Amino acid sequence: MMEQNKTKNTEEILGMANNLKWELGMGIHDKIVSSLYADAAQIARKTVSMDGDKPAFSLDRKIDKIVTSRWSGFPIMFVLLAVVFWVTISGANYPSGLLASLLVDTLHPILKSGADSFMPWWLSGLLIDGAYLAMAWVISVMLPPMAIFFPLFTLLEDLGYLPRVAFNMDSLFRKAGAHGKQALTMSMGFGCNAAGVIAARVIDSPRERLIAIITNNFSLCNGRWPTQILIATIFIGGMVSPFWAGLVSTGAVVGIAVLGIAFSLIVSWGLSRSVLKGEASTFSLELPPYRPPRVLQTLYTSLIDRTLFVLWRAVVFAVPAGMVIWLVSNIHIGGLSLAEHFIDWSNPFAVVFGLNGVILLAYIIAIPANEIVIPTILMLTVLVTGMSGVGEGSGVMFELDSITSTESILRAGGWTLLTGINLMLFSLLHNPCSTTIYTIYKETKSAKWTLIATLLPIVLGFVVCFFTAQLWYLFAWGFEF
């Protein structure tokens, strides 16, 4: 009886403490931490003697007053993000072209000719035109941007700037019911969502760690840059003069990235007030001093531990995807390939969302690796339009030698500015790649949360594309009259 009374009293005390905590407001933890530091400073003043009354000059504090300021902190963040994207976009074009020329233009015909000499046509097509070309595209498209982005990202990390990003974003994520360290996992997701999911381990609270994992897909990962860059260049940059095209295209990609941050905050807010309801925990972030970058260590960490590791996992998943692409394009039923049957069936549904059947099939096939979305779209468009003289044949993944050639194929497939805009939105808001899905399951050990993290973005993607398309159709109809 006495034990029951103790348990009851304990529950009453805990319940009262919880109620009082909510009455005191969200800032109670900050007040407690501030009072602890104030007491510590008071004790230090009594026990530590200092030479002179004026504090010593600190360059770190002078810099922090600028980079963590309420007024300049966020603009600096966005400018740095734009610079990193611009350097990555501009710097990756030439090496990507060289790799594609070597792996696709040079090696593919040699391998194809050798395989045809002793293999049946279907096996040669499956292995060389399917598996090999998918792998070649992923390497040529993914390796150069990652080899540029990850060193730049690691440089900012080494320099000590990323903790300042967490400091700036902390209040926003706290208002959304999430943890300030989610800003770090979100930043890592710009390189690779799987890496961002793993980075969520730095968050101690299981609830807030889960929120960070679920929302990490809203960070525009490396695999989606080729799609964003190409479509922005053709449909957004193409609307202005060539002099401004590069700047406008970069602005469009950065805009999509910022939109992803907004969705991360909105969804975090919704989760923290529904299925993952709870109070946001605070953390004491001690800003490290700025350090000169360690170039050799930065290169090793970014190129070996990150770039090659992520690239290998993408290749592992891309090879079977390439085989699937070849199969659905070369297996015919009733005079049409499986791909054409699906595209004809899904087109009426896709048009409602400002997309088309080719895009839907490309994203289904490209679940293993986002890097193969564009070559899949081009190959399927050539297949359904019956364009001749492009690529190497039906169902063969290929690369085009110019933006103009790519645009001509997309325009022949009925693409408009709306299709381009909605593809950029859908590229941001769609299911994670298989590598990220597998990583989510490994980190959460839950099929339920893995399913939610997989389906939630794609539902949002269809909703956003639907309203964008309807507004577009409404304004287009209004202009006609």
Structural commentary:
- With 481 residues, the protein is an all-alpha fold.
- Helices cover 74% and strands 1% of the residues.
- The protein has helices spanning 2-24, 28-47, 59-67, 73-116, 121-159, 162-175, 182-189, 193-199, 206-215, 225-236, 242-272, 295-330, 338-352, 357-365, 373-385, 403-412, 417-428, 434-444, 447-480; strands at residues 332-333, 336-337.
- A two-stranded antiparallel ribbon has the order 1-2.
- The model is unreliable at 388-395 and 397-401 (pLDDT under 50).
Biggest β-sheet strands, sense, barrel = 2 strands, antiparallel
- Class by SSE composition: mainly alpha
Determine the N-to-C terminus distance.
81 Å
Order of helices and strands: HHHHHHHHHHHHEEHHHHHHH
Radius of gyration: 26 Å
Mean pLDDT: 80
| Strand line-up of the largest beta sheet | 1-2
Residue share in helix: over 70%
β-strand amount: under 5%
Q: Which shape, going by the Cα principal axes?
A: globular
Counting DSSP H or I runs of 4 or more residues, the number of helices is 19
Number of strands: 2
What are the segments in which pLDDT stays under 50 over at least 5 consecutive residues?
A: 388-395, 397-401
